[in-house]
């Protein structure tokens, strides 16, 4: 096994000294811009999801749009209040994972973590495809290239996030402000209109109302409520990323959470009021938000501002995942449920490996779906409802244990929220099961199993390393250093100089293939070695199949067996070229030897880099 840079239970090494300062962290405003894009952009599809379900009951069913939205706004208020408490109680971030770990046990916490991971990954894919779909709707000629456009947007967002979460927040402040301002302007103007000023956007498109309307029953309203709750995705992101905020982190994160809830709630209710006022109905090929912009602002430049702002924010709302998932992976790595590499930070407070892992998995989803939003939407939002429910139940237990002032009211509030989100999770899973939700039902347990597998591996490593116990004092063993060589050069001299400095006994070895030409080269090397006489024996190793690594590994095993009390080291000399591209010119002999020795022996491997230039 290669040497580990971190061990279970220990803090992973940082890639730079902790001298980054607070300037690379978020304020309340930049936190709102960086971590709320998912929730903000959900107003583009949340109200539409409600309308599409209620349309099954015809025009009468659409009359329940506002009551259903008010119920969702009520749940939003419950969630915001709950996650404010989560932020205060768990300032290290992690959201529902941290709550479940503290109050609901290991298994539940891993389910919460798995649901969050799935939600974050799917959010990236859905956001990017939805944004590109808005673009291709405006420019149909780009439709065939939508997958490449999706991948290009993903690369752009990943690149911005690799520069740091503060940099990404600054980039996204302007699009967020334009989107929010345009939606508020749409609502404000629409409230002063008695009817739609234009219906040009929907003209010529088929109506989405059901031909044979069903009755408005409890099941239909529950389904509309559950579908509309997709507008609540992203509410938990701020609580998951509290460590990314500046000091005082809790207060800044709480202010950002409240601002998010207020803005999102006003937009959802305002749009729902306009839907009822203008008696809008779903039509094929035109979003409800586009119809609202047309009816309120007219089919003019303001209409296109709303459309382009929506398109940009949908595409960029993937940034919420890039802010939240790396922090969650860091916590999982700290608890030994994810590889420790996810806990490393680069400069600018970036969890680089988490960002890159999210980008790679999201790219795979984009390729799988072909850049089609409808393929991914049935998988979306189930994970976040599971996370919501676990967090609410965990907070109920938190209040029962803390029993601070007003704890009964707080516990009742969280319990009511858990009931609502739990019912929503069941309804969404049941109604979307055949449309692809079954993948989430399978993926979530597999992800939890992966967490457990990683944890067991770290436990075994910890036992082998005797972590937590005082080790034996170090002692000196006899040292044998083996140096593979192929010719005489300055590299050979440097390698032997290093070897005699490291070991009590040094042996040079060279592999002799069976070909006549190769044998001649081996004889020439032996003759030159005798003339040079470096004081180190040269041992020829026969290779019948022109293999390089296996003969050296076999010799190392023989040496270790003959001297069981000795420490065997293989020192592999390699050239470090001046230019990066010049590495393509190397024969990779060192890598071949190192791989064979690492695979077949327990010897220490030392790779000596000789820098050119």
Automatic annotation (TrEMBL):
<feature type="transmembrane region" description="Helical">
    <location>
        <begin position="258"/>
        <end position="281"/>
    </location>
</feature>
<dbReference type="InterPro" id="IPR053153">
    <property type="entry name" value="APC_K+_Transporter"/>
</dbReference>
<dbReference type="Pfam" id="PF13520">
    <property type="entry name" value="AA_permease_2"/>
</dbReference>
<feature type="transmembrane region" description="Helical">
    <location>
        <begin position="350"/>
        <end position="370"/>
    </location>
</feature>
<feature type="transmembrane region" description="Helical">
    <location>
        <begin position="301"/>
        <end position="329"/>
    </location>
</feature>
<protein>
    <submittedName>
        <fullName>APC family permease</fullName>
    </submittedName>
</protein>
<keyword id="KW-0472">Membrane</keyword>
<feature type="transmembrane region" description="Helical">
    <location>
        <begin position="172"/>
        <end position="192"/>
    </location>
</feature>
<feature type="region of interest" description="Disordered">
    <location>
        <begin position="1"/>
        <end position="24"/>
    </location>
</feature>
<feature type="transmembrane region" description="Helical">
    <location>
        <begin position="147"/>
        <end position="166"/>
    </location>
</feature>
<keyword id="KW-1133">Transmembrane helix</keyword>
<feature type="transmembrane region" description="Helical">
    <location>
        <begin position="120"/>
        <end position="140"/>
    </location>
</feature>
<keyword id="KW-0812">Transmembrane</keyword>
<feature type="transmembrane region" description="Helical">
    <location>
        <begin position="436"/>
        <end position="454"/>
    </location>
</feature>
<dbReference type="InterPro" id="IPR002293">
    <property type="entry name" value="AA/rel_permease1"/>
</dbReference>
<feature type="transmembrane region" description="Helical">
    <location>
        <begin position="62"/>
        <end position="83"/>
    </location>
</feature>
<feature type="transmembrane region" description="Helical">
    <location>
        <begin position="376"/>
        <end position="399"/>
    </location>
</feature>
<feature type="transmembrane region" description="Helical">
    <location>
        <begin position="411"/>
        <end position="430"/>
    </location>
</feature>
